[in-house]
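in:
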């Protein structure tokens, strides 16, 4: 334990040493100012550097793990991790929700392809899933996880025979897909997915008890499954109980579904879901303690689980409470009461990261030992997917110092190539220590929430509500990367501190704001909007014109140069790669680089395919830069096995990104739409 505490917080000086931008950028900094690739500003430069570092984790990076390393060619999407070859709802929930506003192509397509694993195989009363169990799930039921041709409708660990369908998984899946549709505003996509979301909403509604407007779920029907056992009846059997998290997550899902129905012009459906939401809200007081926080569940006989300090079931359940704040299910007053309770319990954040519950659960269907022991897994372990929502709750309540500690903590793992999840020993150790390195999607939830929390972003049918939560020490801030709003791209900046007092868009005064919120009507803003927000009476200066730079700042090599370098990269980063595979990779990379160049001159540079090709080029550039830095001794070396695994990961990721794109482009040959045919023609010409 003492050895682990050196990773408790990263001192400001170490952050400056480890996570500063390249030297060329640092030279432009002056005291109290920071200019990075993704963020610039004045004031608290340590916080600004942390923001810049957070955003960089989603792009190719020669020094550290990055999101492209989780690419999976077999479904042209993202995967949970090298040892978890499927796509989970609970595990992706926080990361995806946090990253959706700032993701561009090809990550928008990657994310959708991954979520399609759930929606293309969702329960319909006929489809058989869950091998070897051969479950046939009810219509509208989503899942715990899925991969192509395989779906697990129930949580698959523990006593699976006791488990309910994926109830809160389904609600969270609706939140993610509805949020993606509200951001993208693509009419064809909405038409495709809205009927599926409605089926899931009906499935959830089937569990609402009309007598009290609470939702019933059985064992493992919660998000952090299987930590919920449902109702243990006097005869020792298990049945359904009223799960608080199912109410909270369903309300969040209905919030977004209502907006989608409005966007689709279906007023009757919007009214129906608004009525269901109101009924769900009416049940919340029954789940609320005298101190204002939520219990975990209530048995049909009235027994309440999750009242801190009670003689029985006297723990605090974190997930339902931070989610209620994050998704604005609770108002500001109740949210502060919940936060105050969390802050009063140091055991909930012993290593700065929120754990699932404190103290140990006493109501699981198994004894709290081994995997189920307190502090290890779903009973008091840490999950960064949950931390994302906790960070968004922090920002909403002006608790940015807590968010900062979360970001500093995860960087302690990132610098060691230990982006693992869950984190055991109450959030201080990796789950798979015997792996030479760890790469798990959940862990990217912390940087995602750290970025989204700055402006929150509430997407509606006709508008985007931006709510600034700028840390007190930052007097000016500029996001150099765009936020998505349909086909429009927003570049946000702030000046000052305090309430919103003025807004300009592309230099023109914008009047739709109040002290907390800037309202951006979709039909009223330009395709590229520089949104400058004045806080506390500050003056709005001239709009900045900076943009994000290529991934490594080194640019991209022409095809012939790239092929020459592939052998050197393989030799140094992945020496065990067979020569024939290196030769094949050389040819493929050269062709992709030619394809990307031809797309640009053909007016297709904004297509998903071209964006994927640019990602291949950028990741290849990051490999070249990593090799240069290693040879120059500018990268701190990991233990031998970890160093070798990290280097191999770079080379393997570059190859996977290329092979996945080639498969997509080859498949365009059999598609009849003109766009796909044109893309394939360019691909064929790039041989």
């Amino acid at each position: 334990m003492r050895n682990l505490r050196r990773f408790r917080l990263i001192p400001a000086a170490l952050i400056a040493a480890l996570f500063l931008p390249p030297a060329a950028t640092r030279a432009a900094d002056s005291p109290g100012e920071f200019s990075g690739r993704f963020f610039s500003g004045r004031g608290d430069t340590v916080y600004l550097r942390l923001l810049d570092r957070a955003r960089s984790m989603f792009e190719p990076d020669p020094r550290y793990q990055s999101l492209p390393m989780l690419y999976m060619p077999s479904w042209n999407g993202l995967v949970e991790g090298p040892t978890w070859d499927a796509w989970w709802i609970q595990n992706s929930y926080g990361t995806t929700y946090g990253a959706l506003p700032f993701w561009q192509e090809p990550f928008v397509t990657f994310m959708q392809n991954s979520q399609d694993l759930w929606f293309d195989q969702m329960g319909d009363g006929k489809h058989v899933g869950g091998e070897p169990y051969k479950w046939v799930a009810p219509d509208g039921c989503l899942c715990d996880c899925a991969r192509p041709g395989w779906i697990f409708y129930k949580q698959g660990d523990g006593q699976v025979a006791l488990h309910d369908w994926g109830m809160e998984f389904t609600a969270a899946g609706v939140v993610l897909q509805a949020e993606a549709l509200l951001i993208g505003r693509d009419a064809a996509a909405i038409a495709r997915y809205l009927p599926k979301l409605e089926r899931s909403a009906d499935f959830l509604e089937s569990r609402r008890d009309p007598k009290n407007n609470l939702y019933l779920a059985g064992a493992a029907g919660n998000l952090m499954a299987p930590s919920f056992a449902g109702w243990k009846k006097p005869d020792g059997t298990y049945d359904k109980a009223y799960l608080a998290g199912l109410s909270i997550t369903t309300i969040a899902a209905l919030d977004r579904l209502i907006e989608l129905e409005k966007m689709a012009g279906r007023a009757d459906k919007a009214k129906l879901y608004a009525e269901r939401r109101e009924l769900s809200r009416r049940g919340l007081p029954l789940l609320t303690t005298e101190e204002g926080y939520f219990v975990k569940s209530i048995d049909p006989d009235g027994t309440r689980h999750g009242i801190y300090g009670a003689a029985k079931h006297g723990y605090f359940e974190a997930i339902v409470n931070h989610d209620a704040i994050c998704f604005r299910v609770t108002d500001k007053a109740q949210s502060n009461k919940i936060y105050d309770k969390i802050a009063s319990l140091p055991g909930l954040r012993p290593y700065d990261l929120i754990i699932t519950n404190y103290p140990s659960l006493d109501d699981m269907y198994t004894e709290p030992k081994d995997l189920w022991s307190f502090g290890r897994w779903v009973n008091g372990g840490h999950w960064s997917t949950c931390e994302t929502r906790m960070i968004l709750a922090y920002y909403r309540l002006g608790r940015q110092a807590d968010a900062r500690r979360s970001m500093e903590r995860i960087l302690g793992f990132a610098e060691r190539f230990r982006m693992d999840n869950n984190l055991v020993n109450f959030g201080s150790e990796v789950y798979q220590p015997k792996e030479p390195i760890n790469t798990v999607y959940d862990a990217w939830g912390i940087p995602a929430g750290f970025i989204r929390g700055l402006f929150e972003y509430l997407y509606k049918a006709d508008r985007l509500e931006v709510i600034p939560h700028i840390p007190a020490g930052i007097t000016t801030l500029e996001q150099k990367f765009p936020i998505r709003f349909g086909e429009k791209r927003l570049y946000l900046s702030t000046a000052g501190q305090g309430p919103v007092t003025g807004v300009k868009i592309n230099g023109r005064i914008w009047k739709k704001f109040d002290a907390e919120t800037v309202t951006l009507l979709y039909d009223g803003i330009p395709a590229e909007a520089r949104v400058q927000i004045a806080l506390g009476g500050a003056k709005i200066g001239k709009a900045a014109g900076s943009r994000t730079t290529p991934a490594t700042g080194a640019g991209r090599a022409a095809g012939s140069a790239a092929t020459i370098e592939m052998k050197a990269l393989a030799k140094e980063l992945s020496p065990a790669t067979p020569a024939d595979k290196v030769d094949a990779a050389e040819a493929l990379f050269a062709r992709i680089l030619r394809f990307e160049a031809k797309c640009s001159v053909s007016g297709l540079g904004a297509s998903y395919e071209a964006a994927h090709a640019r990602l291949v080029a950028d990741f290849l550039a990051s490999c070249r830069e990593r090799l240069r830095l290693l040879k120059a001794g500018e990268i701190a070396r990991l233990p031998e096995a970890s160093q070798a695994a990290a280097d191999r990961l770079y080379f393997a990721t570059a190859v996977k990104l290329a092979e996945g794109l080639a498969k997509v482009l080859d498949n365009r040959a059999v598609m009849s739409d003109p766009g796909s045919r044109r893309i394939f023609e360019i691909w064929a010409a790039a041989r």
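note: Confidence is low (pLDDT under 50) at residues 1-29, 549-564.
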